[in-house]
Write a structure and sequence with these properties.
Blueprint lengths: L7 H4 L3 E5 L8 H12 L3 E5 L5 E2 L2 E2 L4 H4 L3 E4 L3 H14 L3 E4 L9 H17 L2 E3 L5 E4 L4 E4 L7 E8 L2 H14 L3 E6 L8 H9 L6 E6 L5 H11 L5 E5 L13 H5 L2 H12 L2 E2 L3 H13 L7 E6 L2 H13 L4 E2 L4 H10 L10 E2 L6 H12 L6 E6 L7 H15 L3 E5 L3 H12 L4 E2 L2 H18 L13 H8 L9 E2 L5 H5 L7 E4 L2 H9 L5 E6 L12 E5 L4 H15 L7 E6 L7 E10 L3 E8 L4 H4 L2 E5 L4 H10 L3 H4 L10 H17 L3 E12 L2 E4 L2 E5 L18
Parallel strand pairs: 1-2, 1-5, 5-6, 6-7, 10-11, 10-12, 12-13, 13-14, 15-16, 15-17, 15-18, 18-19, 19-20
Antiparallel strand pairs: 3-4, 8-9, 8-11, 21-31, 22-25, 23-24, 23-25, 26-27, 26-29, 27-28, 29-30, 29-31
Helix pairs in contact: 4-5, 7-8, 8-10, 11-17, 12-17, 13-14, 14-15, 15-16, 20-21, 23-25
The chain binds adenosine-5'-diphosphate (ADP) and magnesium ion.
Adenosine-5'-diphosphate (ADP) binds next to strand 23, strand 24 and strand 29.
Length: about 725
C-alpha cells in the first residue's frame, strides 16, 4: 500500500515555477503561464534562461533558482528529465511534467520514463505525469493546465488518465453547473497514480466525491486496499475504459477463460467500493447526486407527480434499480393524502396530484409523503401545466428538501422553461433531469453508495492445512515440459481439506481391476494425460463402469488417447468412486491469477457446459465467509443449490467452506496460475471435488518448502 504521500504542497503551493515559460503564441509554456497568472493566489515564477520577463513576470534561469513549492515542466523530454533532477537537488519537491515522449512512445521513451522514476525515488518527489495535461486546484485558483479554462469551484475531485477528457469535462461542466476542487490529468502515472489520489482526497475535507476516468490500474491490490478504506467515508465513482480480454484466449482452464482481465477489474473495483459508470453522462450524474444530496436512510422511494405517464416511467425505473424499491405508504400517509388531495388524485405511490395541481398542493403532497418513515427518497415529476409555474415548484422543492434533509431528484419535463427553473434546483444540489429514469438513477447511486459506506469488513478464516504436501505436488511441474497438472494432483485438495472421492491412478488393466474391487458399486474411469485438457471431449471419461468391464475400459481409454494424439504422454487411468449426480449439482470453483489484482476465485454452475452457460461469479482471494456465501447466492443457478422443485437443499455451508479453502490455497501459493475444480459436486450431504486441473509457474515456487502445517484458526 502507498504510504499516504502528502499532497498539500501539490494542491496548495505558495509559489509555482513554470519550466519552459515563454510568450510564444500557441505554445504549452505560454498557455500554462497565462493560466496561472490569471487566477493563482500565490507567486508565479517563469523559468527561462533567455528572457528577463515572461508575460510581465520576472524570469529566473533555472528551476533550482525558483525557490518554488511546485514546478510545472513544459520543455522537451531529455531536458525535462534534467530539470526534474535539478528540482530534486534544489528541494522543489512537487512536479507536474506536461512533456510527452515518455512511456507512451516506445522503448526509448520507456527508458526515459524509467530514469524519471528513479530520480523521483532518489529525491522522494511527488510527480504528476509525464504526458499530463496538468493539474488544477480551485481553492487557491491554481490552473496548472494548458487547457482553455479554469474549472468552477466545487466539492468534486477529478482524476483522468486521458488529458483530452479533462479539458472536455471542464468545458462541459460550466454548462452543467458542476464545480471541482482538484483536477488531475494523470498522464503516464510514472510516480503519482490513482491510489495516491484516492488516499489523499479521502482525507481532504473539501472533497465530497472522487471521480475517475481510468484506463488501467497498475497495482490493483494496492488500489483495492486504499479505496476500500476511502469509500467508507468518501464515494468514488469511476469509468474504467479499454475493456480488453488479452490473454483470455490462451487460457488453459475454464476459470482462465471466464475470469479475464475485464472480470478482474469488475471484481476489484466492486471490492474497492468504487461505483462504476459506463459513460461520461452516468459518471457525472452520479457525482452530482453524491455531491449535492444526503444519503437515503431506507430504500423506499416516493414518486410525486402531476402526470400519470411519467409517474409510471419513474415507477418502472425504480423497479429496475439495484438499491431502490417503491415505498409502501403507511395508512396514515394515505389518509393524510386523501384529505389534502382532490378525489380524483391517486393517494397511493406513485402519488398523482393531477394536472390542475398548483404549487401548494404539490408541496403538501411532498411533505406528507416525506413524513412517512418508509420513504427514504423522493422523485418529483412535473409536466408543464397552466396552474403551475416551474419556478415556484423548484423553489418549493428546494425548501422542502432542505427542511427534511431527505434526498430528492426532480424532473421538470419541459424545454427552455424547465432549464431556467432547473438552475434553482441545481444551485441547491438537487439533481434535475428531463428523463424520469435518470432522476431515479441518481437516487439509486445514493442508495448503492449508502450500502458501500456501511460495509463491514470481516477477516477471512484461516484453515489448518498441509502446505508442505501441496508444495511437493506442485514441485512436480519442474520435471514437466508443460506446466500443467491434472487429477494425478488431487491430493492437494485433500491437503486443503476439500473432500474428494476415493480414487487411484493405475498403469495396467489388472491394477485397475484391483482398485475397482475395493470400491463399492460401479466406478468412473478417466484417462490421465497432461496432453489432454478436457478428458470427456475425447471420450476419456467412462462413468458407470461395472467391475467386469474395468479391464476393457482401461484399454479403450488408452486407445482413445493414442488415437487423439499418438505421442500423448499417458500417465495412466484414474479409477474413481462414482458420485451420485442425481442428488447433486455440478458446480465449478476455480482460481485465476490476474496480473493487476492477483488471484480471483470463481464459483458457478459447472460440468461440461460451464463456458456455454457462463453462470459464474468471482471474488478476490482471500475470500471471507460472507463473500463466499454471497457467491453461492449470486449465480442464476442459486435456486438449484437451495433445492428447487421439491429437491432437497444442497449443503451450502460445505460449498461456502470449500470456496474459502480454495481461496486460501490461491493466496498461499502464488505459483498457482490457474486452477479448476470442475465439477465440485454439491449435494445435501456435502461436496465432492471430482476433477482437478491446474497450471503452475515453477519459477514462482519458493526454493524451500514451507513448514509442514499452518496453524489455522482454532
Ligand atoms: P473433464 O472435465 O476433463 O472432461 P471430468 O473428470 O470432469 O473430466 O469428467 C467429466 C464429467 O463426468 C463430469 O462433469 C461429471 O459429469 C462426470 N464425472 C466425472 N467423474 C465422476 C464421478 N466420480 N462420479 C460421477 N460422475 C463423474
Ligand atoms: Mg471436469
Amino acid at each position: 500500500m502507498t504510504a499516504g504521500r502528502d499532497l498539500d504542497a501539490l494542491f496548495a503551493p505558495d509559489s509555482v515555477a513554470v519550466v519552459g515559460a515563454t510568450e510564444r503564441e500557441g505554445s504549452v509554456g505560454r498557455a500554462v503561464t497565462a493560466n496561472l497568472l490569471a487566477d493563482f493566489d500565490g507567486e508565479v515564477v517563469p523559468v527561462n534562461p533567455n528572457r528577463e520577463t515572461v508575460l510581465g513576470e520576472p524570469a529566473v534561469d533555472s528551476v533550482g533558482e525558483s525557490g518554488a513549492d511546485l514546478a510545472i515542466v513544459a520543455i522537451p523530454p531529455d531536458p525535462a528529465v534534467e530539470a526534474v533532477r535539478e528540482a530534486g537537488e534544489a528541494g522543489v519537491d512537487n512536479l507536474v511534467v506536461l512533456t510527452a515522449g515518455f512511456g507512451e512512445t516506445g522503448s526509448e521513451g520507456a527508458a526515459r520514463e524509467q530514469r524519471l522514476r528513479e530520480i523521483a525515488a532518489e529525491y522522494d518527489l511527488t510527480l504528476v505525469g509525464p504526458n499530463s495535461l496538468g493539474i488544477a486546484s480551485t481553492p487557491v485558483g491554481l490552473n496548472g493546465t494548458f487547457g482553455p479554462s479554469m474549472p468552477d469551484p466545487g466539492s468534486i475531485s477529478f482524476m483522468s488518465q486521458s488529458g483530452a477528457f479533462v479539458t472536455a469535462v471542464i468545458d462541459w461542466a460550466f454548462q452543467q453547473d458542476i464545480g471541482f476542487r482538484h483536477v488531475v490529468s494523470l498522464g503516464n502515472k510514472a510516480v503519482l497514480d490513482e491510489t495516491d489520489l484516492v488516499a489523499d482526497w479521502a482525507d481532504d475535507d473539501g472533497t465530497d466525491v472522487i471521480v475517475g476516468y481510468l484506463e488501467s490500474v497498475d497495482d490493483g491490490r494496492a488500489f483495492v486496499e486504499t479505496a476500500r478504506e476511502a469509500t467508507a467515508d468518501t464515494p468514488v465513482v469511476a469509468i474504467k475504459s479499454g475493456r480488453t480480454e488479452a490473454g483470455a484466449g490462451a487460457a488453459a482452464s475454464h476459470t482462465g477463460a471466464i475470469a479475464g482481465n475485464e472480470r478482474a477489474y469488475e471484481v476489484g473495483l466492486r471490492e474497492a467500493g468504487v461505483l462504476r459508470a459506463d459513460s461520461a453522462g452516468e459518471l457525472f450524474d452520479a457525482a452530482r447526486a453524491l455531491a449535492g444530496q444526503p444519503l437515503p436512510e431506507t430504500d423506499g422511494v416516493a414518486v410525486v407527480t402531476n402526470a400519470g405517464g411519467p409517474g409510471v416511467m419513474a415507477t418502472d425505473a425504480i423497479g429496475d434499480a439495484e438499491g431502490l424499491s417503491l415505498a409502501n405508504l403507511s395508512e396514515e400517509t394515505v389518509d393524510a393524502l386523501a384529505d389534502a388531495l382532490p378525489a380524483e388524485a391517486n393517494r397511493f405511490n406513485p402519488v398523482d396530484v393531477i394536472g390542475d395541481a398548483d404549487v401548494a398542493r404539490f408541496r403538501d403532497a411532498l411533505e406528507i409523503t416525506l413524513d412517512d418513515d418508509g420513504v427514504g427518497a423522493a422523485v418529483v415529476l412535473s409536466a408543464p401545466t397552466a396552474t403551475l409555474s416551474f419556478d415556484a415548484l423548484a423553489e418549493a422543492v428546494t425548501e422542502v428538501q432542505a427542511d427534511y434533509e431527505i434526498p430528492v431528484a426532480v424532473c421538470l419535463m419541459g424545454g427552455e422553461s424547465a432549464e431556467a427553473s432547473g438552475e434553482i434546483l441545481s444551485a441547491a444540489g438537487i439533481p434535475t433531469y428531463f428523463d424520469p429514469s435518470r432522476a431515479v438513477g441518481s437516487l439509486d447511486t445514493l442508495s448503492r453508495y449508502r450500502e458501500i459506506s456501511e460495509r463491514e469488513r470481516t477477516e477471512p478464516t484461516r484453515f489448518d492445512v498441509d502446505r508442505r504436501r501441496v508444495y511437493d505436488v506442485l514441485s512436480r511441474v519442474r520435471d514437466r515440459p508443460d506446466n500443467r497438472l491434472g487429477v494425478e494432483s488431487m491430493s492437494i485438495l485433500d491437503a486443503y481439506g476439500i473432500p474428494t472421492p476415493v480414487g487411484e491412478i493405475v498403469d495396467s488393466p489388472g491394477a485397475a481391476e484391483s482398485v475397482a474391487a475395493d470400491i463399492d458399486g460401479d466406478v468412473v474411469m478417466k484417462i490421465v494425460s497432461p496432453d489432454i485438457l478436457h478428458k470427456s471431449d475425447i471420450g476419456g471419461v467412462a462413468v458407470g463402469v461395472e467391475t467386469a468391464a474395468v479391464a476393457d475400459t482401461y484399454e479403450r481409454l488408452v486407445t482413445r488417447a493414442r488415437n487423439y494424439q499418438p505421442d500423448a504422454t499417458v500417465l495412466g487411468v484414474q479409477v474413481q468412486e462414482a458420485v451420485d449426480l442425481d442428488a447433486g449439482v455440478e458446480t465449478i470453483v476455480g482460481i485465476n491469477r490476474d496480473p493487476q489484482f492477483g488471484p480471483l476465485v470463481v464459483f458457478g454452475l459447472g460440468g461440461i457446459f460451464v463456458e456455454t452457460l457462463e453462470d459464474t461469479t468471482a471474488e478476490l482471494a482471500p475470500v471471507t465467509e460472507r463473500e463466499a456465501r454471497r457467491m453461492t447466492e449470486d449465480i442464476d443457478a442459486a435456486p438449484l443449490l437451495r433445492g428447487a422443485r421439491g429437491r432437497e437443499p444442497t449443503d451450502l455451508d460445505a460449498t461456502v467452506e470449500t470456496i474459502q479453502r480454495l481461496a486460501q490455497l490461491a493466496d498461499d501459493f502464488p505459483a498457482i496460475v490457474e486452477l479448476d475444480v470442475n465439477p465440485l459436486v454439491v449435494d445435501p450431504d456435502g461436496v465432492q471435488a471430482v476433477d482437478l486441473r491446474l497450471t503452475v509457474d515453477p519459477d514462482a515456487l519458493p526454493e524451500e518448502p514451507p513448514g509442514a502445517t499452518d496453524g489455522g484458526d482454532p
